[in-house]
Amino acid sequence: MASERARALAATACVALVGLVLGTVLLEGLARNAEAAGANMWITEEWLQLLDRGRFEGQGDGRLVLTGSSEGREGFLEVRMADAFEDRDVFNLSYSNNTLPTFNLVLEYLEAEYGAGSVPSEIVVGVSPWFLVGDPTLEDSYFPRTLNRYTPNFRFDVRDTTVVAKPLSSRLVSRYRHRAHQGRRYRAGLAHFALTGLPGIGGILEERTLLPVMLGRANYHHMDPMSKDDQLAQLRGVGRSGADPGPDRVAIAGQLDRLVRFADRHGSELYFVDLPQSSVMRRDYFGSSYDEYRAWVSGLFAGERFLDLSDYLTDDEFYDLVHPTRSGAERLSDRVAAFVRDR
Amino acid sequence: MKHFLTRRRLLAFAWTVLLTILLLAFSQSSVDFVYRGF
Predict the structure, then answer these.
(1) Does A74 touch chain B (CB under 8 A)?
(2) pLDDT digit string, tens, across residues A42-62
(3) Pairing between β-strand A63-67 and β-strand A122-127 as defined by DSSP bridges
């Protein structure tokens, strides 16, 4: 009798285990389906897209990567720009607080983790004062510290500014952490299914909910613009760096050289765009250091494909001091697409 | 087969699928960095 009961319980446990596997497979399938459709899976944690192997491995050929800090995330509309090109896979790889040294490490990470086939054919680098000056520094940035928690095989070595292999024990722990940190990606998969896989309901959800925002790239486009005076007061309280790097110019030129050499080695084309800043940011925050910055930048990129859009947008086209609104991003993206197309 | 798929097991199966989805997709996972303006 007892053994019969034990058998029944074991059978129920097996059925539950199959349910567990099926639930996981279902979520993973929905997430991959959304990724294949080009959805953003990691809104507000955009740096974690770097670990979505399926989005990089063997996909560099024909890919146009757009990068920059959060200005690039908000300003480069990859879907709109993809419409401007027939033969390119446009991918926005911008993330908060991106800097030139961080991006160099990201490219080297792509090569190490996913192979040379993941290195994009073309890269549009959206530069801005903090991106070039390197604020925040690699030591202070969340980026290497956070990514190192999850990367499967390699880690960002901040001290030696390189990418190095992880020891086996660390690989296992970080893989577990990454598997246990898929909530945002799985929610995006469910959101994509709700919008595209439910006839009749998808349209209503698209109009009345924020699900489309969740699957887009920009964090701020659905919000009303902020007061620039309040933003300026807040920024002055934080004390971030000015626009002129002073004696660090030599080191920054070295980082640029590192990027150019990497691109040359992989046959990748580079484009540089000085991203728009509001007049409040240029005149009231950066002040005279911005004039120094512009003179320095035009010399720094003299031998490169460079487009100066630093005052391309009006103040009404900014959500705050540096991030374009949706309409500002549309104008900016069209201009950048024309620049790449007409090179 | 009909004998194996009892009502109780079907319920256990459905609940496990649902709970797995809720747990993996909606449990509060830590966010490593939150960008707060400047």
Answers:
(1) no
(2) 999 999 999 999 999 999 999
(3) parallel
